[in-house]
What we know:
The complex is a heterodimer of chains A (366) and B (185). Chain A is 60% helix and 6% strand.
Amino acid sequence: MAFDATDIVLSIVKIAIVLSFVLSVTPVMAWVERRGAGMIQDRPGPNRVGPFGLLQPFADALKFLTKEDIIPAQANKLLYTLAPAFGLLPALTTIAVVPWGRPFVIPQMTIGGHVLFTGGRLFEPIIADVNAGILVVFALASLSVYGVTTAGWSSANKYSMFGAIRSSAQMISYELSLAMAALGVLLVTGSLRLSDVVWTQAGSFVLFDTIRVPAWNCFSPGMWLSMVVFIAAAFAETNRLPFDFAEAEAELVAGYHTEYSSMKFALFFMSEYMSMATMSAVIVTLFFGGWGIPWYHVPPTFLGFLLSAIAFLIKICIMLFVFVWVRWTIPRLKYDILMRLGWKVFLPLAIVNLVIVAGFIAKGWI
Amino acid sequence: MFEYLVFFVFAAMAIIFALVVILHRNPVVGALSLVVSFFSLAVMYVLLEAPFLAALQVIVYAGAIMVLFLFVIMLLNLQHRHEPSTRPVQQFLGYTGAAAFLITIVYYIGKYAVYTMPAGPFHADARSIGLALFQAYVFPFEMVSILLLAAIVGALLLSGRAIGHRTGIGTETTEEPAGKAEVSR
């Protein structure tokens, strides 16, 4: 691979944009989560700090920074300190393979007759367009369990330990459903590259000669089963209710992060919301057309890129709200039901869906 | 130049963490070090321009097998007790055997593998691996699947006999934790 200085600069710009998005998810979502909980439970939610409680995340951050950082005497100090980083790393990096806008041709930029930027180069709004994109997502998602297990084990606390054990069992079970559910989409796409997944969902198909429906996978009947399974498994992968067995505050105090305080706890908190945002981005890419705008052909210009990036952001926000909505609507399952659901319901459903999609493709319907 | 830097950093990491796996007394630290070692190997695949293999390496080894190992280690709650060696002869034979194996493998890799590596990037994307598995190597592939199926059936049979009337994997964790854990935050 040959690359020059411009490529490096463009990569740094892309990484800066994506990182600032991922890092700003946590404070925004911390507010949305609480206000959403308040809305659903018919109470105001935090409304003292700032207008509508908007400054609450800042107050929280200040609190995290000033709290005492406690390491239990029995804990394995090295792993106890490293565990939050193990959790944060996959949450931060997964989004690198997700395309977040329409590629556009950079026009030539001149300032006062001086050529600042030679035009004609294609700007692809994705950090790493690898040909195994979706597999990288699964690989990093499967690594996220190490943060939880390491934290739970190294705390030398029985509740934490139970959280860690549950989490690892849950992760192994639901990864399978997640990957199997995504296979249908990949069959239709014929590629593992996430930008190809988006491109196959561009445009629209005509229903009954009158209604134009965007060609998103969520509107294709063969995908409905896998969409439900994928979203449910994504909840399990991100440790969200109704599948948050690593935490399960009603049974395990606070699960794997019972002993954590101060900034170390904040890192777990952050990585939960970051992996939620990443999973939302992956769900949007696989089933809701990625950066595509319905009934609109996005032009390969800067404006088109901007519009498509905003469309992608809006879709992610809707998906994130679904995460919050589900959390405060559906109660936590029992642990054995979770396991039975993963192995005896979701996995067979995903396999059935794979057969259905393969049949559709063989028939030439998709 | 940059690739050399990445290669040497991750090669060193792979070797150092592989050594930690055998030398460290704590089984959980060993398992986590093995994960880091596998991850460093995945970086090698990326450097060979085979991200598909890298992703599979992480998914299969770091994401699935090692999680299972860690699960079992934590479930059994293995302590890192220092056990005095009681069998000096076996210990001696073990060390000599391992040393002989190391010398042999270094010799043969040095003799053959280094020189016969193909110069260009090899084709290791999903398509070519799939075609190879289902065309040239379809018989060994099916044999391995049957072997795995037999292992799964065997495991089910054994666990069914041991557990008897109990229903599933979750039953033991729904009980209260046995110890008197400190409830503090």
